[in-house]
Amino acid sequence: MRQVLERAADRLFPDGTNEHGALPAVLVVLTLATGIVDAVSFLGLHHVFVANMTGNVVFLGFALAGDGDLSVRASLLALGAFAAGAWTAGRLGRRVPHRARLFAAVTAVHAGLVATALVVALTAGHRTPAARTALIALLGCGMGLQNAAVRALAVPDLTTTVLTRTLTGLAADAPGPATVRRLASLTAMFTGALCGGTLFLREGAAPALAPALALVLLAAAAVPVRGGGR
């Protein structure tokens, strides 16, 4: 599997400059998972995102302005859970200076959080206040962990949770090697959102979270702890 991901990662750098091993392909896998998870959170958890914090800041403003479809509490919870995850990854980064090892550890923890969220969805659903609170907290914390670890890796054009700069670069820059990575990131997020939204609307939260967990587990298993970062 890692060899397949390494070949895919090399194709994301058509100029032959990939120095990150399989990690670029792993980040695309996590971007796909992000689209799925944000579909579940937006459609089923009081219209919040657990990965896109820009959206939550805006939603918080709308909720405070009086929009009845949005929740101040849910927006604050998502922001706080994400921040807690990012803070934890930052503290771990000071103890695990090897970035690839840090990413491997954080991705494993992220998989555990998504697995716990899946158990909550299977046993309690997503409609009760307690279930929604648990799901937002678990998924938001996992995405905060992921975002901080990916930020430390600094693989060009592959952030896994936000696409504003990616889309800006795609539109503003002349076509080049980075275009491949930017298109892959956009396509992965869109595909994840489409699949996650379809599964959630037709089957519910648990069937939508199951493929997200599979993708994060795949990423955790494929992360090379030797090479791909210092």
UniProtKB/TrEMBL annotation:
Keywords: Membrane, Transmembrane, Transmembrane helix. This is YoaK family protein. The keyword Membrane applies. It comes from Streptomyces roseoverticillatus. The lineage of its organism: Bacteria, Bacillati, Actinomycetota, Actinomycetes, Kitasatosporales. The chain crosses the membrane at residues 21-50, 70-90, 102-124, 208-225. It holds the Pfam family DUF1275. The keyword Ribosomal protein does not apply. InterPro entries: DUF1275.
